[in-house]
Design brief:
Largest sheet of chain B: none
Oligomer: heterodimer
Structural class of chain B: mainly alpha
Largest sheet of chain A: 6 strands, mixed
Number of strands of chain A: 10
Number of helices of chain A: 10
Number of helices of chain B: 14
Order of helices and strands of chain A: HEEEHEEHEHHHEHEHEEHH
Order of helices and strands of chain B: HHHHHHHHHHHHHH
Largest interface: A-B, 32 and 25 residues
Shape of chain B: flat
Strand content of chain B: under 5%
Chain lengths: 255, 368
């Protein structure tokens, strides 16, 4: 076990979901979800498609609204209060499956937009920070290109850098490599592994089990809107308790 | 990194396209006579050109009369450009006091300058808004007068091209932001806001502009308390703005709907909030996408201003019609309409070219 993982165990909870329920119309998409993420902890969420894992992390920054239960992020409770929602979103970065870069802005403008308008940083400072993070995701030379001119892997790394420019406390990853060609997955995972090693609090929805083994402190398995099983990756992969977990792991690790 | 770099480019044998024989004959063969139907079409087109062009040239130039005291000297069968020489100023400026024609002339120059300045994307923003405000104030001072030693001229004497430009430009400048608000309102989560916007758009789109103008000029005064009047030009201007806004709103809404949900979510997750998200992320993309229909609407709106003739305002076309009533110069409809059409066409053509340029600019980021 790495040093960071030990530290994570002792950290304070920074995300708390208590008895969270959500419905899409008649469909009960989240059932009594309880999840606690400590500062510096890396949580990997997996499960079959339609199990509610994306919906759950999208509730954490209120891209989806939960209907019952309580969500507290960085000490702020998520309610309908727009002030609270915006305060939480400033502290929570998110990376999407489809990158969602702003196509009408250059890479540099994508990175500096929120720091300038939300954090009120001077342009110069925002640009310096942006170039720093572009360096870290290893594409400093692409600063003045438009997103449409980059490959999928490069776009996703820009998207990660864009979130990091806001200096968030927490990073959410919603299947960040699912839309990528196989040869580009590694370059994105490498960036995420580095981020994990620096102690960023991360919640990742992903099917990349190799990545999960490398960085996760906690594995969470969801099925049909419930958290079925959770635990450290070692036990989770070698000795899963639930039959549903076993079935899922056998399917995903078979090939 | 892996040992083998799969991204490395392996040079492939280059196949060059077969050279096309150059020269005008080859060009003709490829473009005009490459098939039997095309050959027939080419010949038919040549025949039409031969029939139409010479008489037009003869009428417009060879047989044309350029100088004449009255219309009677103009009966040779060619164009009577003497009519335009005599009445051109009246068509452009109408009944504005003759000695003061420099004022509407300056107004036209100011409008054209402001329109040209607005074309430069580097000026977009607060500076441009200030420029427009200053320009509109200058136009108001010039046209009304009553200060700085200029005589007062009432709005019913604001005729011709300045009137057309005021109605069209001021109409678009105010209709555009209103349309954006209406389009956003129609997509709002708040039922009251949405209801008002839908109601407004559907109501205004459901009636012809002439009806709106009539209501503004005939019906509105009936409802006002006795003794209170609102300037007729102002009423027409408001009608034009409200009418254009409804159409533009639907175009802009079309653009808004084309923005993928991911853009909203990315902006939200960065904590931008509704107004910043709208201004920085959503609108720039939505508007860039609807430039062709927007410009279409602007061109249509520009020409729609001719309808104000119906309520007794003399715009460019109205002034041309008025010029035709001179007993000394009767019957030169073609000359008058060619002249006004040329002016309308110049403005519309400019708008169309500019929009094509803008489209290319905005699409830069989307091209690989």
């Amino acid at each position: 076990m790495t040093e960071g993982a030990v530290e994570a165990r002792t950290g304070e909870p920074i995300i708390e979901l208590r008895n969270v329920d959500k419905w899409f119309g008649e469909f009960h998409v989240l059932r009594d979800i309880n999840l606690e993420v400590k500062k510096g902890e890396r949580v990997v969420v997996c499960g079959p498609s339609g199990s509610g894992k994306s919906t759950m992390i999208r509730c954490i920054n209120r891209l989806e609204e939960h209907q019952q239960g309580q969500i507290v992020v960085a000490g702020i409770e998520l309610t309908a209060d727009v002030k609270n929602i915006e305060a939480i979103r400033r502290e929570v970065g998110m990376v999407f499956q489809q990158f969602n870069l702003f196509p009408h802005l250059t890479v540099l403008q994508n990175l500096t937009l929120a720091p300038i308008w939300v954090r009120k940083l001077p342009r110069k400072e925002a640009e310096d920070t942006a170039r720093l993070y572009l360096q870290r995701v290893r594409i400093p030379e692409q600063a003045d290109k438009y997103p449409g001119q980059l490959s999928g892997g490069q776009q996703q790394r820009v998207a990660i850098a864009r979130s990091l420019c806001m200096r968030p406390e927490i990073m959410l990853f919603d299947e960040p490599t699912s839309a990528l060609d196989p040869e580009m997955i590694k370059e994105v995972l490498d960036v995420m592994i580095e981020l994990a090693q620096e102690g960023m609090t991360m919640v990742c929805v992903t099917h990349e089990m190799g990545f999960a083994r490398t960085v996760a402190d906690t594995m969470v398995f969801m099925d049909r809107g419930e958290i079925v099983e959770r635990g450290p990756p070692k036990e989770f992969f070698t000795n899963p308790q639930s039959d549903r977990t076993k079935l899922f792991l056998s399917q995903i690790l078979a090939h | 990194m892996a040992d083998v770099d799969v991204t490395q480019e392996v040079p492939l044998p280059v196949e060059r396209p077969r050279p096309v024989t150059a020269g005008p004959i080859a060009w003709l063969r490829v473009n005009l006579f490459n098939s039997i139907p095309n050959t027939i079409l080419t010949l038919a087109a040549l025949y039409l050109v031969a029939v139409i062009i010479p008489p037009v040239i003869r009428w417009a130039f060879i047989d044309a009369v350029w100088h004449a005291e009255t219309g009677r000297a103009c009966r040779a069968g060619g164009a009577c450009w003497a009519f335009i020489a005599e009445k051109g100023r009246f068509i452009l400026f109408g009944r504005f006091p003759y000695a003061e024609h420099w004022r509407p002339l300056f107004t036209v120059v100011i409008f054209i300058a402001m329109i040209l300045a607005s074309c430069d994307r580097r000026l977009w923003g607060r500076r441009l808004a200030v420029l427009w405000l200053a320009g509109l104030i200058a136009v108001g001072v010039l046209m009304w007068g009553g200060v700085l030693g200029m005589t007062y001229v009432e709005t019913s004497l604001w005729n011709g091209l300045p009137l057309t430009l005021i109605l069209a430009t001021v109409g678009m400048v105010f209709a555009f932001p209103l349309a954006i608000l209406l389009a956003l309102g129609r997509r709002s989560q708040l039922p009251a806001v949405r209801g008002i916007c839908v109601g407004y758009i559907e109501l205004v789109r459901g009636v012809p502009l002439i009806t709106v103008l009539f209501m503004a000029s005939v019906m509105l005064p009936l409802f006002l308390p006795a003794g209170m009047t609102i300037d007729k030009l102002l009423r027409a201007q408001v009608a034009v703005i409200l009418f254009a806004a409804a159409y533009l709103a639907e175009i802009i809404r079309g653009g808004l709907q084309a923005i993928p949900r991911g853009q909203y979510e990315a902006a939200d997750s960065l904590g931008l909030g509704y107004w910043r998200r709208t201004r920085l992320i959503i609108l720039p993309q939505a508007l860039a996408m609807v430039i062709p229909p927007l410009v279409n609407s602007f061109i249509g709106g520009f020409k729609n201003t001719t309808l104000v003739t119906i309520i007794g305002l003399f715009d460019l076309l109205g002034a041309a019609n008025a010029a035709l009533t001179d007993a000394n110069w009767q019957g030169f409809y073609i000359e008058a309409y060619v002249f006004t059409a040329a002016i309308y066409w110049t403005f519309c053509f400019f708008m169309s070219r500019y929009s094509q340029m803008l489209e290319r600019e905005f699409n830069k980021g989307r091209q690989r």
